[in-house]
């Protein structure tokens, strides 16, 4: 049986909207991953009576209570007082903690603020993350665990909870996701019937997806028994209208903190290169290469982000593409939609890339650089640098390459994390798109049981990205 938890977030500043509560989401997510079921969560003002009554109730109803906020040194920090009253205890000065705080802040004497921080309910136990450079403890009173409200310190201390307090023997839940082309209202009745069939084993949720051109809903299937989860997924796929659910043998995994940190790192690195280029050449003197492919779609989104941050207003972006008569209709339609979405001044040129760049410099001689969505894994691109002048015999332009280090999976991580619209061909099994004469669906994405191709983001081996190119 899963353990249960109640969460209490304390702070006037949260209830009046001055501070965004990120602690709740962090605790929900971490507890779920450990197999602890969060049953209830409350946000309270800094009031002793309210804290006392809520903690008293939660400590009886749930296996553990996690409290965050109101443990500081000011007059309105009354969390410990409220918790002490919940258990008919008094608050007492903890001499050891008092001394620790004094030394940590390099104080010459103990003042009233230090005493406030070190005054705890009488039965308190203190736990520390010995690997973190912070003096603030995780305070335990009975089955109540009290965290500082500062998210950084809360996260450091929760690591201790995960490793040493929460039962490691708990069954960990699994979550798998199906993406659906129909809106929630069209599938709700059928999915509700399936939930009844699997009620003892899984929990199903349907959630609307907005501002996404491909899917209108996500179906979450959660449980402990992977076999039952997969049976449920299979039942949903077979029950709904054919083609409505994205055909996947493996649904996308949930993003870990490492995934998100990696994404932040590569995005920030790319933005630095783009910002450097915009400042060096001037926004009006740079063009963006955009042909409707996934890489340059990421590039266009990054450029838009960089410009908004630099000047905090919308600008017309100069974009160039090669007008290939053999282009897919879907590519042409996506490019036209992107012109409106990103407010582009689109220049289309005939011939090859080299011809197009000569035409660009002839029509717009003030353009000095072109932002490209090239990656090091692209053909003939392994030695490119972020700022690379065109080769001899080409126009005198600098190629700015902010995405050289991005992998295939990075591209899809970005597009899907931020719901960036992309060409519909990628949902039909294409992973690298040229034109109609040299591009086929990637055979690695073929579901041999159904004969349907999975979306491009399901390709697990980025090395086979160009398997559909002639």
Structure in words:
- With 470 residues, the protein is an alpha/beta fold.
- The protein has 14 helices and 19 strands.
- The strands form five sheets. It has a six-stranded mixed β-sheet, with helices on both faces.
- Helix 10 (257-281) crosses helix 11 (294-311).
- The two termini are 55 Å apart.
- Mean pLDDT is 89; it is low at 247-253.
Q: Going across the major beta sheet, what is the strand order? A: 2-1-3-8-7-6
Strand content: 15-25%
Through-space gap between termini: 55 Å
| Uncertain residue segments | 247-253
Q: Roughly how much helix do the residues carry, as a percent range?
A: 25-40%
Defining key terms:
single chain; 470 residues; alpha/beta; six-stranded mixed beta sheet; 14 helices
Task: Compose a concise summary of this entry.
By secondary structure, the chain is of the alpha/beta class.
Note the topology:
Blueprint: E1 4-10, H1 12-15, H2 23-34, E2 37-44, H3 48-61, E3 64-68, H4 79-86, E4 91-93, H5 95-104, H6 112-117, E5 119-121, E6 125-127, E7 138-141, E8 144-147, H7 151-164, E9 174-180, H8 184-197, E10 202-208, E11 217-223, H9 226-239, H10 257-281, E12 286-289, H11 294-311, E13 317-322, H12 329-341, E14 344-349, H13 353-363, E15 369-371, E16 387-389, E17 398-400, H14 408-417, E18 446-447, E19 452-453
Parallel strand pairs: 1-2, 1-3, 3-8, 12-13, 12-15, 13-14, 15-17
Antiparallel strand pairs: 4-5, 6-7, 7-8, 9-11, 10-11, 16-17, 18-19
Helix pairs in contact: 2-7, 3-4, 8-9, 10-11, 11-14
């Amino acid at each position: 049986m899963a353990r249960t938890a109640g969460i209490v977030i304390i702070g006037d500043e949260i209830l009046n909207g001055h501070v965004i509560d990120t602690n709740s989401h962090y605790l929900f997510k971490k507890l779920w991953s450990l197999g602890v079921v969060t049953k209830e969560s409350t946000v309270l003002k800094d009031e002793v009576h309210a804290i006392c009554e809520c903690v008293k109730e939660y400590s009886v109803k749930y296996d553990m209570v996690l409290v965050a906020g109101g443990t500081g040194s000011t007059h309105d920090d009354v969390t410990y007082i409220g918790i002490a009253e919940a258990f008919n205890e008094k608050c007492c000065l903890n001499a050891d903690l008092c001394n620790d705080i004094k030394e940590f802040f390099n104080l010459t004497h103990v003042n009233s603020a230090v005493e406030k921080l070190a005054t705890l309910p009488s039965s308190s136990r203190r736990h520390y993350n010995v690997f973190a450079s912070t003096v603030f403890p995780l305070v335990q009173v009975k089955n109540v665990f009290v965290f500082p409200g500062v998210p950084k310190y809360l996260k450091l201390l929760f690591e201790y909870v995960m490793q040493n307090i929460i039962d490691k023997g708990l069954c960990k839940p699994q979550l798998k996701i199906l993406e659906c082309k129909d809106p929630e209202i069209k599938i709700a009745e059928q999915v509700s019937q399936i939930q009844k069939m699997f009620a003892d084993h899984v929990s199903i949720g349907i959630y609307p997806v907005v501002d996404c051109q491909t899917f209108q809903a996500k179906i979450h299937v959660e449980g402990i028994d992977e076999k039952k989860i997969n049976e449920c997924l299979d039942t949903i796929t077979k029950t709904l209208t054919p083609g409505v659910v994205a055909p996947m043998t493996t649904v996308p995994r949930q993003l870990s903190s490492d995934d998100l940190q990696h994404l932040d790192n590569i995005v920030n690195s790319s933005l630095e290169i783009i910002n450097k280029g915009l400042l060096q050449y001037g926004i009006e003197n740079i063009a963006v290469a955009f042909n409707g492919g996934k890489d340059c779609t990421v590039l266009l989104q990054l450029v838009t982000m960089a410009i908004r941050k630099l000047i905090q207003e919308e600008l017309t972006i100069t974009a160039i593409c090669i007008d290939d008569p053999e282009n897919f209709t879907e590519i042409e339609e996506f490019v036209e939609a992107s012109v409106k979405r990103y407010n582009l001044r689109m220049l289309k040129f005939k011939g090859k890339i080299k011809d197009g760049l000569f035409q660009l410099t002839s029509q717009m001689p003030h353009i000095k650089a072109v932002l490209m969505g090239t990656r090091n894994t692209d053909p003939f691109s392994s030695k490119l640098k972020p700022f690379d002048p065109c080769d001899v015999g080409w126009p005198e332009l600098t190629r700015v390459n902010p995405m050289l280090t991005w992998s295939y999976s990075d591209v899809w991580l970005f597009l899907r994390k931020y719901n960036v619209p992309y060409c519909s061909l990628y949902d039909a099994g294409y992973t690298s798109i040229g034109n109609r004469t040299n591009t086929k669906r990637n055979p690695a994405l073929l579901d041999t049981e159904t004969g349907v191709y999975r979306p491009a983001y399901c390709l697990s081996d980025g090395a086979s990205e160009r398997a559909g190119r002639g």
